[in-house]
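Case study: Acetolactate synthase.
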Amino acid sequence: MSESNENKHDAPQRRNAATLGAPRGAGSHTAKQGKAMLGAEALIASLEAEGVDTVFGYPGGQAIKIYDALYDSDQIHHILARHEQGAVHMADGYARSTGRPGVVVVTSGPGATNTVTGIATAYMDSVPLVVITGQVGRGVIGTDSFQESDIVGITMPVVKHSYLLQSTDELTRTVREAFHIASTGRPGPVLIDVPSDLAGAEMVFEYPDEVNLPSYKPTYRGNAKQIRAACRLLEEADQPLLYAGGGVIASEATEELVALMDMMQIPTVVTLMGKGGIPEDHPLNLGPVGMHGAKYSNMAMTEADLIIVAGARFSDRVTGRVSEFAPNAKIVHIDIDPAEIGKIRDADVPIVGDLKGVLAGMLATLEKDGARPRDAQWIADINAWRARYPFYHPNMAVNEGDGEIIPELVLAELGRQLDPAASIVTTEVGQHQMWAHQFLFRKLPRTFLSSGGLGTMGFGFPAAIGAAVANPGKTVVCIAGDGSFQMNSQEMATVAINGVPVKVMILDNRCLGMVRQWQKLFYEKRYSETLLAPVPDFVKLAAAYGWEGERVEKPSEVADAIRRMLAATGPYLLDVAISRDQSVYPMVAPGAALDDVMGAIDVAVGAVRTDMPASTGPASPCAKIDAQFGGRWEVDPEDTGARLGQDGSTFDVRPEDWKTLFRESDEKKGGE
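Here is what the predicted structure looks like once written out:
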């Protein structure tokens, strides 16, 4: 059986275990049940009872008893990171790629505080983690003893729940609760702080199968009345749109969402966290939306009369100026976390529940009603917008610099060479992250891992290590920037020592690309502390860690270099030189409305980027449609080239296919 088929058959079992609160491992049936042992040994036995096979971490004085107990485990493989932040990101990559909680063990004080960025990253992106920190003995807590820190207090805003153990009597129950809380409802990180004296105390190991948390009862079943109300709105909508986020992946709701798209012919926009939740070759998948989304996706969001929000949270990177977001749309918001509903945008129909089950309920209701799409023109309009405003056009390779490597084409080439069913891609944070979102083809859930909510530089590389450890049969590639990669490049040692065959492709512009882009566009090119010196030599750095590596500087070298990288049996670093002047477009400026898009390619006016800020060069000669001239385009007097629909035009799209930016009203159509 192939790995993908194994994962498919394992999914219901994973979901049922999480939903019912049962351990994913042996639970109380472990052979260690009822035996006397030390607290540290009971902690490791608890992890074994939960089915944990991999732990990431870094030892220290207050965690030494835990590590001593771990030494005897035949079930758990430990990955020694080179920094605690790296360890948490590794566990995060493990969790995102499998759906199982990632586990971290570190020591107290600086060991614990070094985990905070990783914990916050997981919290923002709803990733299940169990982070175990050593702590000083109970008798000296609060005395500022050596390597003491109040890690429970420090992490309170960025964990789903946390525990400071007070007795061995609560140890096994706490671990059972921690895994249950981390993986149920809206997933998230849970922290367990273990005083060192408890780790050395004797106890009898009794692992519970059940969890009794009266105050924690996630709602899985959506309200039937609300589901019917959502279906009524959908049946009445002319221009419906699905807005799919990371909840599609967390809920394993891909099959149901695609079925709804197909049944009602609903186009779908996808957030960064939702990438891979819908196959990107599905004709109704409009792809990225928001600040660096497609212009046609943003137009669809603006023009929709109904938006079904599926496991997304109205991030500011998606909505733009909230007061002008989706002004014509009624909102159906489906989320398992009731705190998200109404937080940013009021919902006409709020539905709290597991997305997979809610969508299944909607499908059953629509089928019973005999519902069908109301307006084929909506899809026709969107397809016209997609043809007119593509992410990329072949002419741009020339326009953006002769002889320069074009980052969009690099990502597209990587996507062509990767098997979507046998590969996982992680990203660091910055321009390369957005280019990957726009151009890298993904077809399956849990195959694109990126820090969305916190935007953590240094996430992607260690996350790739965790994903590779969890998925040994898959090719794992980290797409990085030269700035982000250096945040946790010390983990190259972890890769080399553990024989993890990850690949790292750096889009190397020797600057902090995204911040520099903002400085170019909005701060009069005042490049304050964003230009990086040409150090290190990444190829030599790779060699120092025992990796293979190479650098490419010409477009003609890229495809073969990617081929060599993917064919390598061990870790490989590919340093791809790109220009500092490359920018990510389209772009919605911070604080602007979602439909106020700069830098979108418009094939109707010669495949130029439109509505560019004056600081980046001459304004586009053609920017707005003028309906009074029958759909002709306003042009600069000096621009005498053939326009769409004129004799000599090189475009084979008919003028009537564009019509207007906005739908004509039924009344106007009737009057004509």
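For the exam, be able to explain this: Residues 643 and 649 are 6 Å apart (CA to CA).
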